[in-house]
Amino acid sequence: DAMVIQNPRYQVTQFGKPVTLSCSQTLNHNVMYWYQQKSSQAPKLLFHYYDKDFNNEADTPDNFQSRRPNTSFCFLDIRSPGLGDAAMYLCATSREEGWEQYFGPGTRLTVT
Amino acid sequence: KNEVEQSPQNLTAQEGEFITINCSYSVGISALHWLQQHPGGGIVSLFMLSSGKKKHGRLIATINIQEKHSSLHITASHPRDSAVYICAVGRGSNYKLTFGKGTLLTVNP
C-alpha cells in the first residue's frame, strides 16, 4: 500500500500560471520534506515541516511556498512558474528528524 | 569539491555480476543513506546506516565511519537492478540530507 502519495504524477503548467502539488502520507510521520530534482542532478531540499513548524532553506526561491494543513497533507505552491522550475518534485516523510526518510513517487512538472 | 562523492558515475555490468558502488564523504554525519531511483521515477530508500553493515536480500551496505566511506554491493545482479543509486548523508540539528550525484547502473541480460 502506498505510504507517501503525490498527486498528480505529471503536471503541465504554463509560464507564470500558479500550480499546486500535493503530498499525503499514511504513516503519521512528524516530518515532511519537499525536494526539487532537476534532470541528472541530485535532489535539493526546498523546505521541511516538523509538525507545523516550517523550515525554509536559505536558497529556496520566494516563488515557492508550502502549506501543511494537517499531519497527513503537505502542499507545494509555485506562484509564478518559470521554465527553470521544470523538475521532478519529491515529497518525503520521516517519523522524526534524523530518522529514515520515505519518499513519494514524485511529480514531474513541465512548464510550457 | 562536493561533500559527498560517489564512484563510479556510470557502471555497466552483465547479469549475474557482483556490483560495488562507493561513496566517500568529507563531513561528520549522523547517518548515511543509500537510495535507488529508476529512470523517471521516484526514490526508494534502500538502507540507512550509521555503523557496520546491513543486508537486505541481494543488497549489502557497509560503512566505515573512521574512513568516511561506504559501499553498496549487489550480488547476482539482474537487469531490474538497473537504476541510479544515490548516496546521501544526514547531519546537523535538523538532519539535512546532502546527496551525492548518483551512480547510473545498467545491468545487461
Polypeptide structure, described:
The complex is a heterodimer of chains A (112) and B (109). With 112 residues, chain A is mainly beta. Chain A contains no helices and eleven strands. In chain A, strands 2, 4, 5, 6, 9, 10 and 11 form a seven-stranded mixed beta sheet that branches. Chain A has a four-stranded antiparallel beta sheet with strand order 1-3-8-7, with no helix packed on it. In chain A, a hairpin with a 2-residue loop joins β5 and β6. The mean pLDDT of chain A is 92. Chain B is mostly beta strands and 109 residues long. Chain B has no helices and eleven strands. In chain B, strands 2, 4, 5, 9, 10 and 11 form a six-stranded mixed beta sheet that branches. In chain B, strands 1-3-8-7-6 form a five-stranded antiparallel beta sheet, with no helix packed on it. In chain B, a hairpin with a 4-residue loop joins β9 and β10 (96-99). The termini of chain B are far apart. The model of chain B has no long low-confidence stretch (mean pLDDT 92). Chain A binds chain B through residues 6, 41-43, 45, 48, 50, 55, 88, 90, 92, 97-98, 100-106, 108, and chain B through 30-31, 33, 35, 40-45, 48, 86, 90, 93-97, 99-102.
Number of helices of chain A: 0
How far apart lie the N and C ends of chain A? Answer: 34 Å
What quaternary form is this?
heterodimer
Uncertain stretches of chain B: none
Radius of gyration of chain A: 13 Å
Largest sheet descriptor of chain A? 7 strands, mixed
Shape label of chain A: globular
Order of helices and strands of chain B: EEEEEEEEEEE
Query: Structural class of the helix and strand makeup of chain A?
Result: mainly beta
Helix proportion range of chain B: under 10%
Structural class of the helix and strand makeup of chain B? Answer: mainly beta
What average pLDDT do the residues of chain B reach?
92
Query: Roughly how much helix do the residues of chain A carry, as a percent range?
Result: under 10%
DSSP summary, beta strand count of chain A: 11
Radius of gyration of chain B: 13 Å
Residue-averaged pLDDT of chain A, rounded?
92
**Which regions of chain A have little confidence, pLDDT < 50, spanning 5+ residues?**
none
Strand-residue proportion of chain A = over 45%
Q: Note the beta-strand portion of chain B.
A: over 45%
